[in-house]
Amino acid sequence: MTTTPGAADWRAANLANWDERVPIHTAGSFYDLPAFVAGRNTLRDFELSEVGDVAGKTLLHLQCHIGLDTLSWSRRGATVTGLDFSAVAVKAANGLAAQVDATTARFVTADVYDAVQALGGQRFDIVYTGFGALCWLGDIARWARTAAALVAEGGFLYLAEYHPVADLLGDDGATVENDYFHRDPIVVDAPGTYADASAPMAATVTVEWRHGIGDVVSALTAAGLRIEFLHEHDHSHFRLPAGKGIPQVYSLRAAKTA
């Protein structure tokens, strides 16, 4: 574990890595694109319940990767916009949108911190952020301000994310391997991805950050959003099965009121 010399370096390293992940993810079994094209939904039951009816609403998905969750919301009637910093991922998402005839979906290439400008100041009924997104952002307060600026009056932010407690544990689900309070950049040099650990890659260095739930909630409230709920779930983590007796994912909804 080391620290990075500057913001430009960590962003470039992460972008190069995610660009390489896209063809691995679109070709492999983890995301199972044929099943998705055939109608599979990628959203968890609790997400559908907590977000509620999206028919006729505008929804922005920040850090959308190849757009499966974005398009799953589209299938439920939302007019969706997916945003990701990887042009390679956005190209794949647009290809999937064409395959599933998602005529009310669009995808935009931009850094999440530049989303307000990239989207021309548009605001959305729902701003959605899904699993495995926040660890790639060093400035959680800036993320919260950006997300809040994108929520329309009367709308809300919905976040479903891996629980930081689960991320402290090793693959056995019992051994504590990391420090919850560590906030410095975490540099990892490892081949492959969570979808295929053996996949050959050239850009193997990534930089991540650990954000506690208190950090996230405090950032959103400071940005002017009102927390409606925070729920912790014993839902399967991508590394750990359910039933471990620990919170593995969490979800929250934060509203913008006049």
UniProtKB/TrEMBL annotation:
Query: Please, which domain of life does this record's source organism belong to?
Result: Bacteria
Which N-terminal stretch is annotated as signal sequence?
none
Keyword Transcription listed? The answer is no
Boundaries of every Methyltransferase type domain copy: 60-157
Report the enzyme's class at the first EC level.
transferase
Protein name as catalogued: Class I SAM-dependent methyltransferase
- Sorted UniProt keywords: Methyltransferase, Transferase
Q: Which organism is it from?
A: Streptomyces cinereospinus
**Matches recorded under SUPFAM superfamilies:** S-adenosyl-L-methionine-dependent methyltransferases
Query: GO: which molecular function terms?
Result: 2-polyprenyl-6-hydroxyphenol methylase activity; 3-demethylubiquinol 3-O-methyltransferase activity
Q: State which Enzyme Commission number(s) the record gives.
A: 2.1.1.222, 2.1.1.64
Matching InterPro entries:
Methyltransf_12 (IPR013217), SAM-dependent_MTases_sf (IPR029063)
- What does the entry give for GO biological process? methylation
